[in-house]
Write a structure and sequence with these properties.
Order of helices and strands: HHEHEHEEEHEEHEHEEHEEEHEEEEE
Helix content: 10-25%
Number of helices: 9
CATH topology: Deoxyribonuclease I, Chain A
Largest sheet: 7 strands, mixed
Number of domains: 1
Number of strands: 18
Strand content: 15-25%
CATH superfamily: Endonuclease/exonuclease/phosphatase
Structural class: alpha+beta
Radius of gyration: 20 Å
């Protein structure tokens, strides 16, 4: 099946309070902004940290622009500012929700070292985040990773899933030689327990849109993660799967809607489908980033039917915006340009080649689960 055929099919389908004691953090509920009232709940989210590089060269990686003598003049002072900014956003989400994220997937991080520096930042050190990270093959050196609260999430095992081109139903634009030389981020899978229930958390950063290309590669990324998740479901019946990441695609694109089987509502799901809560939010005008002047939600989170339509008494995704939407795009005025040609868009680290000391070109997204 070609991507054009899939796109045509998709168009037909988708038109249209404060911390009291440490255990309170470990077991306490999210605030009413999450729509969960006083029920036990967990925050599971994703944040593209937009080029969180240290100031040292990693052998074999093209990280030269993020060195003190590189194009971005990436000094220790700028690096420390970037770390503080990322921590401030994470702390602001905790302030809104009343609890730290149980799981926070991240992308565009250079290595484990930058995460070790991040988790001890004063604003978030109390969360005691642990790190899951693998060095990947991306030529620029950016990876995905996962931070987790060990008092809420018990890590059992993890895997770095490589991007491969076969077996696949996709007809690729690249020649076999080009495929052999292609390098992109691996997909991270973390298998663990939340409250005694099995979860498989996937963190993705699918191939870029540079040059208007890569739709077939992003479709392949969706195919890879979906097939792996189905394998986990067979191995651990009833496991709850969460797929998150910077997909470089909207929830309506083939990678999400066809290859990841993303559905707009819980009611229309088949057992093998995934619920895609940001699909309806995209249609309603929400945005997690702007690409070439257009509003998009590339920072997607999808959940398996076992989490979307869970039995009473087990973890289930919750509506958290207006009692209607099951995802949140977290944005605050300090994270947003307040004036100029980029007014209303995410306040990023660099603008027009100049360091402006912002946060990220993406807003973080998250879901809430409760039982």
């Amino acid at each position: 099946m070609t991507l054009k055929q899939i796109n045509r099919n998709m168009k037909r389908l988708f038109y249209p309070l404060v911390l009291i004691i440490l255990m309170a953090v470990a077991c306490g509920p999210a605030r009413n902004t999450s729509g969960t009232g006083t029920r036990s709940s967990h925050i599971i989210g994703f944040y593209n940290l937009e080029n969180l590089f240290d100031t040292f060269h990693d052998e074999g990686k093209n990280d030269y622009e993020y060195l003190p003598d590189g194009a971005n003049e990436w000094t220790e002072a700028k690096y420390q500012k970037k770390l503080a900014n990322m921590a401030h956003v994470i702390a602001a989400m905790k302030e809104d929700n009343g609890v730290w994220h149980t799981v926070l997937g991240v992308s565009e991080i250079e290595n484990r070292h930058v995460l070790e520096d991040l988790v001890v930042e004063p604003e978030i050190a109390a969360a005691n985040y642990q790190i899951v990270h693998y060095d990947g093959p991306d030529r620029r050196g950016v990876d995905v990773a996962m931070l987790y609260d060990p008092t809420k999430f018990t890590l059992l095992d993890s895997e770095s899933i490589p991007f491969t081109f076969a077996p696949s139903e996709i007809k690729f634009d690249m020649t076999p030689e080009e495929q052999e030389n292609f390098r992109t981020r691996d997909i991270l899978m973390c298998h663990g327990l939340i409250g005694g229930e099995h979860f498989a958390i996937y963190v993705c950063h699918l191939p870029s849109r540079l040059g208007g290309k890569g739709a077939d590669n992003r479709a392949r990324g969706g195919e890879i993660v979906y097939n792996h998740a189905r394998g986990m479901m067979e191995k651990y019946p009833g496991i709850k799967c969460v797929i998150m990441g910077d997909m470089n695609d909207n929830p309506t694109d083939p990678s999400m809607a066809y290859f990841m089987h993303g559905r707009e509502t819980r009611e229309e799901m088949a057992p093998e489908d995934f619920f895609s809560p940001f699909l309806s939010m995209l249609k309603a005008g929400y945005s997690s980033l702007y690409y070439r002047g257009e509003s998009n939600i590339y920072d997607c989170i999808l959940v398996s039917n076992s989490l979307a339509n869970a039995p009473e008494g087990s973890w289930q995704i919750q509506p958290i915006i207006k009692g209607k939407y099951y995802g949140r795009i977290f944005s605050k005025p300090f994270m947003t340009n307040q004036s100029g040609q980029y007014k209303g868009t995410p306040f990023r680290t660099f603008s027009n080649g100049a360091f402006v000391g912002g946060y990220s070109d993406h807003y973080p997204t998250y879901i809430v689960i409760a039982r």
